[in-house]
Specification:
single chain, mainly beta, Jelly Rolls, 2 domains, 8-stranded antiparallel beta sheet, 32 strands
């Protein structure tokens, strides 16, 4: 019985919670003024380059905790090229300037951050009263991720560049430190106040992934964003504090659509049988507390890109190479009453073998009940092995790199093996008879010395 069958029968308690976020949705869309933006390849998907114009962003009130994060591919500054600007009318209080400068009276050239809160205090001076800034000029022509955070607990402004702490302001003691942004004044992206000419435009080669959070992003959050995930995919609780998010997938010079979700639904499962594995291989790294990929030295296991999802398993460029991950012996399943479902595909298109299932051994070809998809041949093998002796049943399958869903069952009633719903093996002498654990591997099929890659994005295993 699959996980989904058990859910339907109520054997597992499922709780879905919908939580409102800080986002106000379409009320935080941005409006273009003066054109000046062009579509180009972004850091993640599409982006926009700029020569002039601006985007007017609705009021973004900041308070005790807040963060900005965005990617920019800058040009060398030619004066003050404003990336982000906010000023409440003619009042210097409640202002925020971020401009790439070739020279600045308060410090050396760089991307200056000039912030004054509602009391008029400048928050962007360090302990020596020097201006804090990003180093964009020396990174002209390259992607840079800029993050700005404020936390009212220690009253410090922090700048992170490419995921690492770059500069920190001195601590401020007055009660309203960090409060800036008003309910009536808009923000300007890419220029100074309402200007649309090129004099103060950011002139960025590319802008992408601009986000504002009503919370202080942690170092772990910033590191995760720097791995190349979208702001809406953040895994920590700060995902509920995402208020404004522009991914620049819109048509240039039109509307910047706020992609921050207004609510997020989370699902929790309780009353699982003790021996159960469910993994969708999400996140930025393989969970090594669960999965062991170190017992063989001829391959790698790396997380795939966010759009395709899952884990890529690659064997080395050797003849007869293979690379397998297993479940680190933290869960075991019965050889006479268990099941495994996985969703996998071959990334390589030639001479690549994908194997998934249950095994009692870390070796590629011993004591395993699993499914092999081959690209070296026009068939799929339903296979079981004990002590390295395979029993195969073949069916024709197209050679492709599509996702495949497979199910393997060791049936307790008669100790037979069912694969993809078809009973293929009844010879119990070739069914592993020791405790099993989930495995997934990539291997070669014809002794060709080249790397082979397979990918998995879901696996579940349970005792029936």
């Amino acid at each position: 019985m699959s996980l989904f069958d058990k859910l339907n029968q109520g054997a597992i308690t499922v709780t879905t919670t919908t939580t409102s976020t800080s986002s106000t949705g379409s009320t935080n869309n941005g409006s273009n003024n003066g054109g000046g933006f062009s579509a180009t390849t972004g850091k993640l998907g599409a982006g926009m380059s700029q020569s002039s114009g601006n985007y007017s962003l609705p009021p973004i009130p900041m308070g005790a905790e807040w963060s900005f994060n965005f990617w920019i591919n800058p040009q060398s500054a030619s004066g003050n090229d404003y990336i982000l600007h906010h000023r409440a009318g003619g009042n210097i209080n409640s202002s925020f300037y971020m401009y790439n400068s070739d020279d600045d009276p308060l410090g050396s050239g760089g991307c200056m951050v000039n912030a004054r809160d509602s009391s008029g205090e400048r928050l962007t001076l360090d302990a020596s009263n020097n201006h804090i800034f990003f180093d964009l000029n020396s990174n002209a022509g390259s992607w840079v991720m800029c993050t700005i955070t404020w936390n009212n607990s220690d009253k410090k402004l922090r700048l992170y560049q490419d995921g690492s702490l770059h500069a920190t302001s001195k601590a401020w003691t007055h009660s309203n430190a960090g409060y800036m942004g008003t309910s009536s004044a808009n923000w300007t992206l890419g220029n100074y106040q309402t200007r649309t000419d090129s004099t103060y435009a950011s002139r960025a080669n590319n802008l992408d992934e601009w986000s504002f959070w009503k919370g202080t992003l942690s170092q772990a959050d910033i590191t995760e964003l720097y791995t190349g995930i979208k702001a809406s995919a953040l895994s920590s609780a700060n995902k509920f504090k995402l208020m404004v998010y522009y991914d620049f997938e819109d048509s240039p010079n039109g509307t910047l659509t706020n992609q921050a979700p207004a609510s997020i639904s989370t699902t929790s499962y309780t009353n699982f049988p003790e021996q159960r594995v469910v993994d969708n291989f999400s996140g930025s790294v393989l969970d090594t507390d669960r999965w062991n990929s170190t017992f063989t030295g001829n391959g790698t296991a790396t997380m795939a890109d966010e759009f395709d999802g899952g884990l890529k398993v690659t064997c080395a460029s050797d003849v007869s190479a293979s690379y397998m991950i297993n479940f680190n012996n933290t869960r075991t399943f019965s050889p006479t009453g268990s099941a495994c479902i996985f969703v996998g595909k071959r990334v390589s298109t030639t001479n690549t073998q994908m194997l998934g299932g249950l095994s009692s051994n870390t070796a590629f070809n011993a004591d395993v009940a699993g499914v092999k998809d081959w690209t070296g041949n026009t068939y799929k093998q339903f296979s079981t092995a004990k002590n390295g002796y395979w029993v195969n049943a073949n069916t024709t399958v197209a050679i492709d790199t599509n996702w495949h869903v497979h199910k393997i069952e060791l049936l307790s009633a008669s100790a037979i093996l069912s694969m993809d719903g078809i009973i293929e093996v009844t010879n119990t002498g070739n069914i592993p008879d020791s405790p099993l654990q989930p495995v997934f591997s990539s291997g070669e099929t014809s002794g060709v010395a080249s790397a082979k890659t397979c990918q998995i994005r879901y696996m579940e295993a349970y005792n029936t």
